[in-house]
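Known limitations

Files may contain more than one protein. Parsers should not assume a single record per file. Below, a two-record file is shown to illustrate correct handling: read the sequence, read the C-alpha cell line, then continue until end of file.
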Amino acid sequence: MRCPQCGLEAQQGAAFCSRCGARLFAPRPDAVREYMLARVRPSLWYYANLFVAGAIAIGAGGRLLYANHDLWRLGFAVMAVGVLIIGAAVLSARRVSWSVTSDRIIERRGLLSSRRREMELADIRSVEVAKRFLQRIVGLGDVTIASAASADSVIRLNDISDPDGFAETVRKARLKRLA
C-alpha cells in the first residue's frame, strides 16, 4: 500500500505511514452487501377510532337483526359497513412501512400504486423522538429524521412502537456507516 501523502510504500496492514505519519486508508472490498436492520409499520393503535366505529356498526346491525326481524336487510347492510370499516383500517395500516438498512432508510407508501423515498445514513442531520401523552400511555411515539442534504427532506415515522429503540438503531447504523 502506498502512502497518499508522501508516496512511501508502507508495510501491508499498517494504519499510519512510518515516514510522515499520515493515515493509510485500507481499500474496502467491493462485495459489501446491504442488509436489513429494522422494519417498522404504524401501530394499529393509530387506527383505533376506525376499529371502534366498525365494532359499533357491527353491534348496531346485530341489534337491528335481533330487535326487528323485518329489518334484516338493513341489519346485514349495517354489519357489512362495520366489516368494511375494520378492513379499511387494516389496509391503511399495511400501506406504510419504514426500513433501516446498513446504508439507508427507506420509506414505502401505497398498496396499488407506491411511492418510495430513501435517505442515506451518512446524510442524516438529526433524529428526533416525540411522545404525546396518549402515545406514552400505549407505548408509541413519532420519530422525525432530517437530512443534511436538503432542508425539506424529512422522513416522519408516526405512531410506531418503541420509538426510542428505533432511533437508537438508526444512530448505531449511522455511526457504523460513518466509521
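...continuing to the second record:
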Amino acid sequence: MQLACGEPGRYDSPMTVHLQIRDLPDDLHQTLRQRAAARGLSLRQYALEVLREHCEAPTLDEWLDGLKQLTPVTLSTPSAKAVHQAREAEEAALVDALGRP
C-alpha cells in the first residue's frame, strides 16, 4: 500500500523543496504559532512535524483498502453478546472489589 504523501523516509533525502502557503487565514496562522511555541519549536519545525504526521497516516481510502485484504473471521459467540458478557463480568469484579451488593 503506497501512502498518499510518499514513501517513508522520503524526507531524509538531501533534496529540499520549499513550500509556501498563500492566503493563510490569520486565525490558523496564530493557532500554528501558539502550538509551535508550546512545543518549543519554530513554526517551520512544527509545520513540518504536522505534515509528516499527516503523511504517515493512511488516507481513508488506503485504510479501507487495507481492510479488504484482511481475512474475515467467524466468531463462536456473536460480538454483541461477547461485549455484553465482558461488561457483566467487569461489573461483577468491581462489585466484588468494592464489597457492595
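Parsers that stop after the first record will miss the second one. For reference, the second record is described as follows. The mean pLDDT is 87.
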